[in-house]
Specification:
Blueprint lengths: L10 H13 L7 E2 L1 H8 L3 H13 L3 E3 L6 E3 L1 H12 L2 H17 L2 E8 L2 E8 L14 E3 L4 H7 L4 H8 L15 H14 L2 E4 L6 E10 L2 E11 L12 H15 L24 E3 L7
Pfam families: HTH_IclR, IclR_C
Keywords: DNA-binding, Transcription, Transcription regulation
InterPro entries: GAF-like_dom_sf, HTH_MetabolicPath_Reg, Tscrpt_reg_IclR_C, Tscrpt_reg_IclR_N, WH-like_DNA-bd_sf, WH_DNA-bd_sf
Length: 289
């Protein structure tokens, strides 16, 4: 008999419960004890012990031999790495980047943190290419440009200062900020605005607009639009802020695996295929082209 005298759970129910346990781990909930888990999930101690032991046996969890508490294990890291290296994250982002690039006629780019930089995971050219080389794998430093500022500005201020304090930053153009206090002022202004904007900080000939991708209250990357300053365009890139913000919400929903997210990014599509100028770039995280 299972919990509360009910009929035994089917294999699929057991698998679902094990998945629920894995999904319960967060930055705040880093480990579980058997009794603690049983109480939180409304199951008996023996069931909780079997689930935790089974997950630990396959490496999804790791058991501390002293405290007998369970935390995420090496199999989770390995599977996440496989997903990243085989382009899973890039393919997911592509579903949002393509309609965004089509709608704005700009280059749409998704980047994730990489030390004191953000790294381009996927990009789609909505018009003329922003660079003569692929953007995937390119690193954008924390001190230069909206693409990186769209992530770093929205970190917890203490976490951001711990990353940046005492660092020596490179200068890319005369507009690049390298002073720690000036950078902090820019970050604070960006948060107050709700978006990052740059012109000529990283590349003198380009400008960019970016917003954070926020997952469960924490920034996990940035979504940006980029354009060349030449030739001049009839519209301002900042006119596309609502579309960029909506795309960021759609991408966050996909990353959070929310039930109604699968079709949402496609709603902005008109059914037209990307023209030759609207080309997509995807790649494996951590691999520079």
């Amino acid at each position: 008999m299972s919990d509360n005298g009910a009929r035994p759970r089917s294999p699929l129910q057991t698998v679902d419960r094990a998945l629920e346990v894995l999904l319960s781990f967060t930055e705040r909930r880093r480990d579980w004890g058997v009794l603690e888990l049983a109480e939180a999930f409304g199951i008996d101690k023996s069931t909780a012990q079997r689930i935790l032991a089974a997950l630990a046996a396959r490496g999804f969890l790791s058991a501390d031999p002293v405290t007998r508490r369970y935390s995420l294990g090496p199999t989770m890291w390995r599977m996440a790495a496989v997903w990243e290296r085989t382009g899973g994250l890039a393919a997911l982002a592509q579903r949002v980047l393509e309609p965004l690039a089509f709608q704005t006629d700009r280059t749409a780019l998704f980047a994730v943190p990489d030390g004191l930089h953000v790294r381009c995971v996927a990009a789609v050219n909505g018009g003329e290419p922003l660079r003569s080389h692929p953007l995937v794998g390119e690193l954008y430093p924390a001190n230069a440009g909206a693409t990186s500022r769209g992530y770093f500005a929205f970190l917890d201020s203490n976490e951001r200062r711990a990353l940046i304090s005492g660092r020596v930053f490179a200068t890319f153009t005369e507009l690049t900020k390298i002073d720690e206090h000036e950078l902090e002022r820019l970050f604070v202004e960006t948060v107050a605005r709700g978006y990052a904007y740059s012109e000529g900080e990283y590349d003198y000939a380009t400008r960019a607009l970016a917003v954070p991708i926020v997952l469960r209250g924490r920034p996990v990357g940035s979504l940006s639009l980029g354009e060349s300053k030449y030739p001049a365009r009839p519209d301002d890139i900042r006119d596309h802020l609502p579309a960029l913000q909506a795309a960021a919400e759609q991408l966050a929903a996909l990353l959070d695996n929310r039930a109604n997210s699968a079709a949402a990014p496609r709603q902005a599509r008109t059914g037209r295929a990307l023209s030759p100028a609207r080309t997509s770039q995807t790649g494996n995280i951590g691999e520079t082209p």
